[in-house]
Design a protein that fits this description.
This protein has nine helices and eleven strands. It is of the alpha/beta class.
Amino acid sequence: MSEECVLETEGLTKEFAGFTAVKDVSLRVMRGSIHALIGPNGAGKTTCFNLLTKFLEPTRGRISYKGRDITSMKPAEVARLGLIRSFQISAVFPHMTALENVRVALQRERGNSFDFWRSKRVLDVYNDRARTLLDDVGLSEYADTVAVEMPYGRKRALEIATTLALDPEMMLLDEPMAGMGHEDIDKIAALIKSVSANRTILMVEHNLQVVANLSDRITVLTRGQILAEGDYATVSMNPDVRQAYMGVGDA
């Protein structure tokens, strides 16, 4: 594997009771890039993403991260290597404040024990770093707001803050724009661009337009297989992509 390639799959395949959801996917994500995995509904994006993040085991194929075979590893093991996933549905603690959510994520350095039952003073050491992360994602004014009371787009920003608290080398984002209006989409897209400065990002997204100005490289899946790859200009003009993904013919 090239020194510039941080995540790579070879012949990645997943079968469910005779149905092939992902078939022979060979993917290369380059260090420092924003790489989008897109496709129509049922294309195999989520299954592929679950394979990469170890929430599913492949039927066949191999996954490498920074040259290391992670095919048989568990999600927690790959997370410790710096490969951190966020979820399509906001995965924050709804009845904690934004600051408390980020502090919980920062506790990882304490080991496997999360100090829910101990005095809040134990976690005060994380306050400054938590506030810095909230500022980084534009949530300073929400520090003391309970997550369940935050607007949807701000909850997604909070999830990115908690992901950043784990100090990932590579972030895997599962449809970060899902359910958002145009204003929130623009904000989260700008946020993803800003946090990508020193990281590699792989994101699953169904909206080609969303990733047009965000991604360095796009991989299009259909029926579990790679249909096309390249930058937005290349992918958007591919007649097979236009037909299969957008339902647009050459005419």
